[in-house]
TrEMBL record:
Gene3D superfamilies: TolB, C-terminal domain. This is Uncharacterized protein. InterPro entries: 6-blade_b-propeller_TolB-like, Hetero-Diels-Alderase-like.
């Protein structure tokens, strides 16, 4: 398993209120998306398609779609979901962007201001010690953190910078309030 995101679950009891008691997990070994409902105690494969067959390394829920980066294809793909987080049977997977100038996509974050399928590097890059070997990212919550992108790294342990340089893993906070896309 490599990456997960919480998904809404609408319960008929309790006034039909939305709860986040389920997650969608990217299974990069079996190339599937798996939905786990903690209250029901159930899990199931919800997506097993060709577009996942090159190692989905994360999953992210945004605007009625589940997104995932594809490590080998260097794409970010998505599929529309219903209000309980299941992929819509009538929909197909679409690639929203390809990022050919990098070596692999492990994780990503998106914000509410970027609806035009563009991307921007937040910090670091190939050969940079600023954020070596990013492993996950998440946007801050609340009015004082909405422009903060939190990023975890493995410090280059798996793939040392310039072949030899590593550092301790870390969590970094990147202020993106001045970014323009």
């Amino acid at each position: 398993m490599n990456g997960m995101t919480s998904v809404p679950v609408w319960r008929s009891s309790g006034g039909g209120e939305q709860e986040e008691v389920a997650v969608v997990v990217a299974d990069s070994y079996n190339d599937q998306l798996i939905r786990v409902d903690f209250v029901a105690g159930q899990n199931e494969v919800v997506l097993d398609v060709l577009e996942l067959y090159a190692h989905p390394n994360a999953t992210f829920l945004y605007n009625d779609h589940t997104y995932w980066p594809n490590f080998e294809r260097l794409t970010i793909d998505r599929i529309a979901i219903d209000r309980n987080g299941y992929p819509l049977k009538s929909e197909t997977v679409s690639t929203i962007t390809t990022i050919p100038e990098i070596q692999g996509i492990d994780d990503f974050g998106t914000d509410s201001y970027n609806e035009n399928n563009t991307y921007q590097s937040a910090a670091g890059g190939i050969g940079s010690l600023l954020l070596p070997s990013c492993t996950a990212s998440a946007w801050g919550r609340g009015k004082n953190h909405k422009n903060i992108l939190y990023v975890t790294t493995n410090g280059g342990m798996v793939s040392p910078i310039n072949g030899t340089i590593v550092e301790p893993a870390k969590v970094a906070a990147v202020d993106t309030s001045q970014f323009v896309i």
